[in-house]
Amino acid sequence: MAQSCLKCLKYTMCLVNFLFFMCGTAVFGFGLYMMMNSKVSSLIPSLASLNLANILFIIGIIITCVSFLGFLGALKENRCLLIAFFILLFLLMLVELAAACFMLVYEGEIDTFLQDDLQKSLRKSMKYQKSGNSTNSADDWDIIQTTLKCCGINNSTDWMDKIPDSCCSPPVTPCNTFWKEGCYTKLKVWFDENFLSVGICVIVLCVIEVLGMCFSMTLFCHISRSGLGYKL
């Protein structure tokens, strides 16, 4: 009976990690595609390398590597791979909890930092718009404003007298009316309205990581007792 349960646990762990590996590969590939074909960059000058493409690329690599360790460790019943999988999951959970605590404690400072950096990005876009040139920053603002149906950071007055066509509501020429809500304001409102859903997603992620650690440690202990610690 115990052997059957452990075998079921082993193949369940293999299946789940294989699914995560495929998801991680898809995220990695999409991030790489965006890096090669998209002009979207970070709207936060202080974190210039932190854009959507790079974030997806890094997340994809992490998911792929961790799930591969879990899959191969369970399939081959290898103690080294299982303990590495356990440690990586534990470290990831610690980083997630630390980031959540940091955002809760320094919420005001983060809000001020983001608004100041977005103002710098917007002023840079206005400067090049005035000279008739196009930049990644200007393109980014156009994409964000068109997608979210918003204008500026807090409202259209952030653009002063250089309001771009992407702020038009509806998008017609000549432009007479603009989106009333700012992009940063709209994102904050969306987050506040969906705070419970975001919290549930974080909790579910932590539960999955805890279950992964429990499964890997159970298999690790079984393999240690069976003397198969270095089976390849």
How would you describe what is shown here?
The protein is an all-alpha fold and 232 residues long. It has helices spanning 2-37, 52-76, 79-105, 107-131, 136-148, 183-193, 195-226. The protein has a domain at 2-94 and 212-226. 73% of the residues lie in helices and 0% in strands. The radius of gyration is 24 Å and the shape is elongated. 25% of the residues are buried. The model has no long low-confidence stretch (mean pLDDT 81).
Highlighted features:
73% helix, mainly alpha, 232 residues
Instruction: Report Rg.
Output: 24 Å
What is the quaternary state of this protein? single chain
Q: List the uncertain runs.
A: none
* Main sheet: strands, sense, barrel: none
Overall average residue pLDDT: 81
> What is the general shape?
elongated
Order of secondary-structure elements? HHHHHHH
The fraction of residues in strands falls at under 5%
Broad structural category: mainly alpha
What is the share of helical residues?
Answer: over 70%
- How far is it from the N-terminal to the C-terminal residue, by CA? 25 Å
Structure summary:
The protein has 232 residues and is mostly helical. The protein has helices at 2-37, 52-76, 79-105, 107-131, 136-148, 183-193, 195-226. Helix 2 (52-76) runs antiparallel to helix 3 (79-105).
